[in-house]
Amino acid sequence: MGSVSRGRRRKTRRRTPGGYVRFLQLVTAGTLAPTAVAVFRLAAPLGALVGALAAAATATAVLAPIGARVRFGFQDERRARSSSTLAVLFDLLWMTSMLAPVTTLLAAVGLAVAHRLSLGAACEVGVAGAALVAGYGVLVRRRWVRRRRVELEIPGLPAAFDGYRIVHLSDLHVGSIDRREEALAWSHAANALDADLAVITGDILTTGTAYHDDAADAVGALRAKDGVFACLGNHDYYGEEELCAKLARRGARVLRNEGVAITRGRETLWLAGIEDVWRGAPDLRAALRGRPEGAPIVLLAHNPDFFPRAREAGVSLTLSGHTHAGQLAVPFLVSRATLSHFVTRWPAGLFRDGAASIFVHAGLGTTGPAIRLGAAPEVVEIVLKATPSGRGRPTASGRGHRSER
Predict the structure, then answer these.
(1) How many CA atoms are closer than 13 Å to the CA of 189, on its beta-carbon side?
(2) Deepest of 51, 189, 204, 257, by most Cβ within 10 A of its Cβ?
(3) Does residue 389 surpass a pLDDT of 90?
C-alpha cells in the first residue's frame, strides 16, 4: 500500500447561483419564440387576447422557476419524492422550450419540401417534436443504462493480468434526483459482470451531506474479487472525511493521493487514485509511492484534464469521469459531437496518446437538467489485455438495457 499524502486542500469559493441563473434565463428566453407561437396558435381560436395571455403564461412558467431549479441542486437536501418529481417535470418543460428552435427548423425544412411551409405550422410541429424528444431524454434515456465492454491492450502488462476485468462506474450524483434506489440498481448491474475490480471515478454525490448514507449504501453494494475503490470528484467535497469513513465501513476504499498493489502471484498491477483537480490537491507522486518498479499503473482521476500529467508520469491507463458526455450529444458520435467537447479534449470514451490511454466514463447520474440525449448512462467493463508487441489496439462495444428497479 502506498503512503497517504493529501497535500494542502485547494481553497475554492463556494459557488453562488445568482449569475448562473441570470445566464440561463437569458439563454432560455432566446429559445422561447417557437413555443410561444405554438401556444398562441393553439389558444387563438378563443380569441387573440387569450392566445397572447397563454403565450405569456407559458413563457413565465418556463423562465420563473429556473432560479429555484438551479438552487435545488446547489445544496441538495432531504426532500420528498414529490419535490423531485416536480423538478423533473419542470426539466421536461424547460428542455422542450430549449430544443424547440432546432426541431422547428427541421419541421420548416420538411414542410418546405412538401410545399406546405408556414411559420405557425412549423412552430406547432416543432414544439410537438421537441416535447417528444425531451420526454425521451428525461423519462427514458436517462434511466436506460447500457452495458459497455472495452478491451484495451496495455504495454508491459504481465501475463498474469491478461484478461483482468475492471467494472467502471462514475458520476452517480446520488441525491434528490438520482436516488438510492437508482444507484443500487447500477451497483447490481455492475455486480452481474462479476469483475475482478470495481472502481468509481468520483462525483458520488450531488452536493451537501444529506445523502452520504444513501451514497455509501449504493457504493457498498458493489462486489468485486479484488475490492471496490474510488476517488473523489469535485461534487464530493462536502464533509468528505465523513463520506470516506462511511464508504470504508461499507467496504469501499477511497484513494486520496495513494495507491495499492493488486497482485497475481509475483506480478503486480498498481492502482492509484488522486484528489480532484478543482477541489482537492492532486499529488500523483504520492499516489505512486511504493509502486514496484515496472508495475503498470491504473489511475483513478475524476477530471480527464489530468491525463497529460498522468501520461508523463508513465501511467498506463487513466480512468476518469466528470464530463457526463455533455448529457446532450449527437447519437453515435458522443466522442466528437457533445456539449462536453467544448470544455475538454477528452469528452467521453477511449483515447490513446502513445503508450498511455484514458477512458472517460459518460456517467450514470445527472446534474443540471435531468436529461440525457445521445449520451447514454453506462456501466463499463474494461478488459486489460497483454501484448508482446508493446502496442495497444483498443476495441469497444456497448449494448443498452433498462436497469432493473
Answers:
(1) 27
(2) 204
(3) no
Strand partners, 3: none
Residue 22: Cβ within 10 Å count: 12
> Among positive and negative, which fits the CA dihedral 308, 310, 316, 318?
negative
Same domain, residue pair 300 and 164: yes
Rg of the Cα atoms in the chain: 23
Averaged pLDDT score across all residues of the chain: 91
**Do 188 and 124 fall into the same domain?**
no
CATH number at residue 386: 3.60.21.10
Residue 84 resides in a domain = yes
218-264 pLDDT, tens digit per residue, is 999 999 999 999 999 999 999 999 999 999 999 999 999 999 999 99
Give the pLDDT confidence of 68-77 residue by residue, as tens digits. 999 888 878 8
* Sole residue written with cell 403565450: 55
Reply yes or no on whether the pLDDT at 377 is more than 80.
yes
CA distances from 183 to 125, 215, 219 (A): 37, 8, 8
Where residue 359 falls among pLDDT bands split at 50, 70, 90? very high
Q: Is 255 within a domain?
A: yes
Residue-wise pLDDT tens digits, 162-215: 999 999 999 999 999 999 999 999 999 999 999 999 999 999 999 999 999 999
CA distance 321 to 231: 10
What cell does 193 get? Answer: 459482470
Residue 287 pLDDT > 90: yes
CA distance 241 to 17: 26
What secondary structure does DSSP assign to 97-156, as a single string?
HHHHHHHHHHHHHHHHHTT---HHHHHHHHHHHHHHHHHIIIIIGGG-PEEEEEEEEEET
Look at strands 267-273 and 228-231 and give their pairing: unpaired
Residue at grid coordinates 502471484: 265
In the block, cell 423533473 appears at 88
Between CA 327 and CA 341 the distance in angstroms is 11
Provide the number of structural domains found in the chain. Answer: 2
Residue 390's pLDDT is 42
For cell 443504462, name the residue.
145
116: its cell numbers: 406546405
